[in-house]
Every structure is written in C-alpha cells, then in structure tokens.
Amino acid sequence: MDLSVGRYNGSSFSVVGRNPVMNEVREMPIVGGTGIFRLASGYCLAHTYSMNEMDAVIGYNATLIHY
C-alpha cells in the first residue's frame, strides 16, 4: 500500500500472502514498509464487497505497528 497524503506521504507498507478473492474475508500479514512504516508489522483484512466476471470491489482494513 502506497500512501500519498498527510504525514504518511511517500510511505508504504507491504502486504503478502494468499488472497483468494472468492472468500468473503481474507487475513494477510504486513511484513515491513518504507518511510514512517519502516520495520512495520501487523495484519490486513481484505473484504470482498462485490464481484463479477471483470471487476471486484475490495476493501482493506490494516492494523499495523511501526516504530
């Protein structure tokens, strides 16, 4: 995830793991980042709100700790 506003501008964090979009909710780990999120860890929940043959609407809720 790359952030571009406020104090987080230019910082990013990395979400890895399986993301089977057919499951309604997926949990994936946060394994690091850049800028203010250097050494970040935590988890991200991905929620599928709608999906068709071409597109999907997915929301992400990230909980992370950074130093």
TrEMBL record:
Q: Where, per UniProt, does this protein localize?
A: Secreted, Extracellular space, Apoplast
Q: Which GO terms describe its cellular component?
A: apoplast
Report any Pfam family annotated for this entry.
Dirigent
Q: Name one GO biological process term.
A: phenylpropanoid biosynthetic process
Which domain of life does the protein's organism represent? Eukaryota
InterPro entries in alphabetical order: Allene_oxi_cyc_Dirigent (IPR044859), Dirigent (IPR004265)
* The keyword Secreted is assigned to this record: yes
* Stored PANTHER family: NUCLEOPORIN-RELATED
Q: How does it assemble?
A: Homodimer.
- Could you tell me what this protein is called? Dirigent protein
Q: Which gene encodes it?
A: DIR1_4
